[in-house]
Amino acid sequence: MFRKFFEALFPSQKQLDTNKLILVVDDGEVERKFMQNTLAQRGYRVLVASSGEDAVKLAHENKPDLIFLDYSMPGGMNGHEACKLIKRNETTKDTQIVFLSGSVTPTKVIDCYDAGAEYFLAKPISASTLLEHTRLLIEDDEINRKQAAQQQQQ
After folding, report:
1. Contact 26, 35 (CB under 8 A)
2. Domain boundaries 16-153, CATH class
3. Which helix (H) or strand (E) holds 38?
4. What is the mean pLDDT of residues 93-111?
5. What are the distances in angstroms from CA 65 to CA 26, 45, 76?
6. DSSP class of residue 16?
7. According to the model, what pLDDT value does residue 81 have?
8. What is the pLDDT of residue 150?
């Protein structure tokens, strides 16, 4: 009974029919699992990584449709460096990247956009915010691809 009531109040929580691949990169295990489970329950395919090096490798190997990337990861490559490498690669340069950070300053936000990110979200992030931004960014990407294909045909 409660499930029907909840679905009636929040119809957007239903699973989507999608084959979109999302890469979640965060050094925090709790954050990774939360995002992975939230996105997977919605029908997205999800890869996870805990470092900038793994993010770059998985992005190049799998070409995800969207990447959620933690800005600060201790040791090794941080999110800013990983973003720049992903955006420089011909295979992954058009992949949308959303930075996540618990520490939000104007300088950090500008730095993320300068590295090539399409969006910036402050942590902690709710499930509804994660899902809504995912949906909007993927829909926006699909519209842009269709428009580019139409322009090439003209």
Report:
1. yes
2. alpha beta
3. helix 29-41
4. 93
5. 17, 10, 25
6. P
7. 95
8. 73
